[in-house]
Amino acid sequence: MTDLELQKKAVEVRKGIIQAVHAAKAGHPGGSLSAADVFTYLYFEEMNIDPKDPKKADRDRFVLSKGHTAPGLYSALANRGYFPIEDLLTLRHTGSHLQGHPCVQHTPGVDAASGSLGQGISVAVGMALSAKISNDSYRVYTLLGDGEIQEGQVWEAAMFAGHRKLDNLCVIVDNNGLQIDGPIDQVCSPYPIDEKWSAFNFHVITIDGNDIAQVRSAFAEARATKGQPTAIVMKTVKGKGVSYMEHQVGWHGKAPNDEEYAAAMEELKKAGEALCQK
What we know:
Layout: H1 3-24, H2 29-34, H3 36-46, E1 61-64, H4 70-80, H5 120-134, E2 140-145, H6 152-163, E3 169-175, E4 178-179, E5 182-183, H7 184-187, H8 193-199, E6 203-208, H9 212-224, E7 230-235, H10 258-276
Helix pairs in contact: 1-3, 1-4, 1-10, 3-4, 3-9, 5-6
C-alpha cells in the first residue's frame, strides 16, 4: 500500500477505536490512538500474515505488551479482515471475544495474551528464540508503552535478546510521554530511552511514530539489520487524531460520552475526507 492509502486506513482504525471504547463505556483510547499508525503499518504492510489462516506456521508474530491498548489492536485486526468490524461494538461486553486485554484463545489474529505490563516482551523474546532454534523464517514484533518500560522485567528480556543476537525481533516503544499517573518523566523517568536499548545491544531507530513514511523507513531498516535485535522508539502524540484527546493524560483510560463520541467521529470523518482529496 502507498503511504496515502495507509494514512486513510489509519483513520479507519482510529474510528474503530473510538467506536469500541464508546460502546464499552470503558477502555484506553489515548495509547490506542497514539499507536494507530504503527498498528496499521504492521497489519497492512509489514507483517507476513493471512486473515484467512490466522495460525499459519510461518506467519510473523505480534505481541501487544501494552495490552490495555487492545482497542487499537482489535480495530486493526477487524479492518484487516480477521473478524467483522461490527464486533468492535462488543468490546468488554459479557460473552464477547474482545475483552479489555487480548486473549489468544478467543480472538483471531491474537498471538499472545497480554496485559500484565512488562511481560509481553518476554513472550516475544521467547518466540524469536524459538524461531532461531527451529530455523524458522518468521519475525516477531512487540509494542511496549513508555511507562511500561519502567518495569524491570523489560530489561531482563532486553538483556537476553541482545545477548542472543535475536535479529528477528523488533521491539517498538510508543513514546507518547504520558502514563496513567501523568508525564512519564515525572512519574519515573525512563529517559534516555534510546541509549538504554543501545546499551542492551539493540540497533536503535528513533522516529515520529505518527508519520507513515518514517514508520515505513524504520521497519525496512529493522528488517535489514543483522546480528542484533532492533528497537524502534516512536515519538507519538497520545490521543492522536482526536484533538480534544491529544496530549491529555485524562484520556489514558476513559471512554467518551455521546457528545464527545460524535465530535471525535466527525473530526475523523473530516480527516479521512481530506486525505481523499490528495
